[in-house]
Amino acid sequence: MSITNALPTGDQVVQNLPWRWNVQGRIFLIGGLGFMFDAWDVTLNGVLIPLLSKEWDLVPAQAAWIGTANLLGMAIGAFVWGSIADAIGRKRAFSATLLVFSVFTVLGAFSPDIVWFCIFRFMAGFGLGGCVPVDYALVGEFTPKKQRGRVLTAMDGWWPVGAALCGVTSAVIMATFADWRYTMLIMVLPALLVFWVRRSVPESPLYLVRKGRTAEAAAVIEDLIRRTGGAKTEWRLPEPAEPEKLTLRTMGTQLADLWRFSTKTTIAAWSLFLTILLVYYLALQWMPKILVDAGFAEYRAFLTTSGMAAVGLLGVIAAALLVEKVGRKWILAVTGPLSAAILVVVALVVDVPTAATIWLLAYGFVVQVAIPVLYAYVSELYPTELRGSGFGWASTVSRIGAGFGPLIFVSVLWPYLGLPLSFALAGVLVLLAVLWMARFAPETRGAALD
Asked: Of 65, 188, 369, 416, which has the fewest Cβ atoms less than 10 A away?
């Protein structure tokens, strides 16, 4: 094989292969299942809050730690697993995230009290927190560049699927067994199945080259060419490049680079991620409890929340159809504040089951138009060398906000302001973020990334 520098590298060949559902599509489906479990696990917090509040006689401030512990674990896991993937490989990290999640979910199901339960939920979140970034990295590296944008956008469609499955499964379990422990144990079975299936996903050739395993890297690339029917041409392996290790020093450098690039852009990215996703997590975690307190039976509250999540799949489709026609800023400017306003309406009509259900379905659709566009927009605000860290830090800020925000919501705002005003205050925060974006952040539709 020629090693002339004029030849394309193996990873470039992989990025130009034809799309095949039984090759790259299979990796997309397996990676998407990890994203689905992330949604299932976050939605499970909302299911567990009313159930454990009754089981252990928890006040809302105590119950809020069910979601807070889980989301903080995810925030830390999102960073740590990136370094783990660099050390042990995408494939092993790809599988290990779900294994860690499964072990601590089982332990959580047998917790004797709320303290141990939160510890195990934190560790389960830590495992699953690495699932999404590792999945995105692996799916992106194997997807042809012509399809990459659509495929990575479609990954977000797994979220409403996972959230809806959580609600439906929990409703069936509570109607049949009336035991919250089964709601946790049942999701471990498909998680372990996905863990087993993930063993067949090939290792990233770029990782193999970096580790000096060039023969294995060449074998993976040649196998992909053969299975997709790609053109057989000469190519060379890329030069190995050891990635920078993630330490406190490099994290500080990343942060400084983001703010040095543009203070206004970084404020826009962080504030949009923080406020829009805070509103989403407030609804996802506390809506089952709100509905139960309003008189809904537990199984009906879970089914209603499941419907709210499921209709979000239509929102993702609408976002994909509108994002290039309308532009990122206009969609976020409308759907962000509108989703919060709909929650205020839900709080006002929650005692009328039919009206509350209709407005919750409207909320599920609108907020899932906003979230995929938000992901696309923030990733486009930074140049290539800052894009990963820019998106990663904005996502981490949102996870921390989603962890502590509901704690403040149920401990301070809801008891003193009431539910409608509390949601309205969250909406004001979204509106402020949108106004900052409108004034200081650029529109990225059709813009070159660099």
From this structure: 416
d(CA 450, CA 448): 5
Distance CA 364, CA 314 (A): 9
pLDDT in tens, 120-147: 999 999 988 877 766 776 787 788 877 7
Number of other residues whose CB lies within 10 A of the CB of residue 349: 17
* Cα–Cα distance, 254 to 82 (Å, whole number): 14
Residue type, 99: L
Phi and psi at residue 51, in whole multiples of 5°?
-70, -45
What's the predicted TM-score (pTM) here? 0.83
Alpha-carbon gap, residue 443 to 440, rounded angstroms: 10
Greatest Cα pair distance, the chain, in angstroms, is 73
Find the DSSP H helices in 198-237: 205-210, 214-228
- Give mean pLDDT, residues 266-292: 94
Each residue of 157-197: pLDDT tens digit?
A: 888 899 999 999 999 999 898 899 999 999 888 788 777 87
d(CA 50, CA 285): 10
Q: Which residue has the tokens 């206004």?
A: 264
Count Cα atoms within 13 angstroms, Cβ side, for 132.
Answer: 30
Is the CA virtual torsion 103, 107, 109, 114 positive or negative? Answer: negative
- CATH number of the 1-244 domain: 1.20.1250.20
Residue 9 bridge partners (DSSP): 236
String of b and e for 131-156 (b: at least 16 CB within 10 Å)? bbbbbbbbbebbbbeeebeebbbbbb
- The 8-class DSSP code of residue 445 comes to T
Q: How far apart are CA 288 and CA 140, in angstroms?
A: 35
Q: Residue 362's closest CA among 348, 347, 379, 342?
A: 342
Q: What contacts 261, CB < 8 A, 6 or more positions away?
A: 382, 383, 386
CA-closest candidate to residue 50, choices 367, 379, 410: 410
Residues 283, 308 contacting (CB under 8 angstroms): yes
Cβ count near 177 (within 10 Å): 12
For domain 247-441, which CATH number applies: 2.60.120.10, 3.30.565.10, 1.20.1250.20, 3.40.30.10? 1.20.1250.20
